[in-house]
Here is the input.
Amino acid sequence: MRRVIILGSSGSIGTQALDVIAANPERFEVVGLAVGSNRDALDAQATRFGVVHTAVGHRDAEALVRSVDADVVLNGITGSVGLGPTLATLETGKTLALANKESLIVGGALVTRLAKPGQIVPVDSEHSALAQCLVSGTHAEVRRLVLTASGGPFRGWSAADLESVTPEQAGAHPTWNMGPMNTLNSASLVNKGLELIETHLLFGVPYDRIDVVVHPQSIVHSMVTFTD
Here is the structure.
């Protein structure tokens, strides 16, 4: 039985994680929940899962991580405010299931130096797939890592067309249902830039061996080419 703390429990990642836990009660126990501001959702989740330890806001989320015994912390907070909880997770020896890529990117070596081998488990589909592929070989055997991008809702649009883009259009991703920040960053392709930096920091592969390929069907999320 793994004891889990979920940070950002009312968001897209958090609610999906709770669905997985609810379907596997013999494997997981929720021991802590944190939201940014949605107290109603937090109350409902705490009641549903019998959780005593809860927090609102990133500072209280960090305190929650430091004070509650757990095996895994899922950091699904949005934005760089997730850095404190990420560092707290690593410092207390818990496994970090990382969906908050911003904390790794802004923390950089501060995060990677703290992490023990295998302590950070990437949640993003691209990085999770890369991690699983790399189990079969060392980094020295990697020729290149490939991330795919759908191209977002504006793939193929001209510069003139992009001048009249509306927030509603930017929020209509052609493939995935995500939180508003990730959806907007995906439309502008900023998210893929962040994922590229995350790939470098997670796996230690130089930038010149990390490629991004536009793949509108989004069937393949990432790939590894080995030297053989």
Summary: The two ends are 40 Å apart (CA to CA). DSSP finds eleven helices and nine strands in the chain. Residues 128-226 form one domain.
